[in-house]
Automatic annotation (TrEMBL):
It holds the Pfam family YdjM. The chain crosses the membrane at residues 58-77, 98-117, 123-141, 150-167, 173-192, 229-251. Keywords: Hydrolase, Membrane, Transmembrane, Transmembrane helix. It comes from Lentzea miocenica. The keyword Transport does not apply. This is Metal-dependent hydrolase. One of its GO terms (molecular function) is hydrolase activity.
Length: 268
């Protein structure tokens, strides 16, 4: 599930599901504004792990800036892979589907996001919103947007950021919720990659069957080809429909959709 649109929608789906189901937990009792901020962050974060691949479309989201960052992440990921692999690990480059595809990275991204927003919300939240909105837009528009049009992505991302910040101006976003949203988005990416043919080394550096980079994946019969018919015709549409449904259910729980009070979107 490594195509951009499916990854992006899986991040939104994961955020919507967690916030809709966890109604008795603080993460399920956010204000509509905080929920929307989290939705943007989670959707963008679902593309974040692929910044380890300099050749990916996502890595070109903001032109030379994101390309340079991607090259640096790829180099670091390769170094970590080479220095921590065991004999049974494959002797590959390790740049892609390496460090950024582990729970360690997801936790780091979540804690970093929360810490930065907690300490510098006035400037950090707009900046992070812009970056993650850009990743989300690039992921969703990947199939029909010119792949090199960084300017278009920048303009659309800036528009989303401006609208979100203007809407949330009177409400302090929860730093913890923002961090959780980023962690959830990354985890959604890992699940998507895990069900493809290559699997995903989510549990690094825990050694499993003599491998620190063990590719977590279901049985082969349950895996699918990246960008294949199963993903594009079945999984992608289902993820999109579920993300919209659970997103509405979560917003209904915040009180943002009073006109839907007549229907129980989440009857559990």
């Amino acid at each position: 599930m490594s195509t951009g649109p499916t990854h992006a929608m899986s991040g939104l789906l994961a955020w919507s599901a967690v916030t809709a189901i966890a109604s008795t937990h603080p993460i399920g009792q956010l204000s509509p504004q905080s929920w929307a901020v989290g939705a943007v962050l989670a959707t963008g974060a679902a593309l974040l792990p692929d910044l380890d691949h300099p050749g990916s479309t996502i890595s070109r989201t903001f032109g030379a800036l994101s390309s340079g960052l991607s090259a640096g992440i790829n180099t670091l990921s390769s170094f970590v892979y080479r220095t921590t692999r065991l004999k049974r690990d494959s002797k590959r480059d390790g740049g892609h589907r390496g460090l950024t595809h582990t729970l360690v990275f997801a936790m780091f991204a979540a804690v970093f996001t929360a810490a930065v927003i907690q300490n510098s919300q006035k400037w950090a939240l707009p900046v992070l919103m812009f970056v993650f909105a850009g990743l989300a837009v690039r992921g969703i528009m990947n199939d029909w947007c010119p792949k090199q049009d960084a300017l278009l992505i920048t303009v659309v991302s800036a528009g989303i950021t401006w609208a979100m910040i203007a809407w949330t101006a009177q409400t302090d976003a929860s730093a913890a919720a923002c961090g959780i949203a980023v962690g959830i988005g990354c985890f959604a990416h890992y699940i998507g990659d895990a069900i493809t043919e290559q699997g995903c080394p989510i549990l690094w550096p825990i050694p499993i069957m003599g491998k620190t980079w063990f590719p977590v994946a279901p049985p082969k019969i349950m895996r699918m080809k990246t960008g294949g018919v199963v993903e594009m015709a079945i999984v992608g549409p289902i993820v999109t429909i579920l993300s919209i449904w659970l997103g509405l259910a979560a917003l209904q729980g915040t009180g943002a959709l009073p006109f839907l009070d007549w229907v129980d979107l989440l009857p559990i």
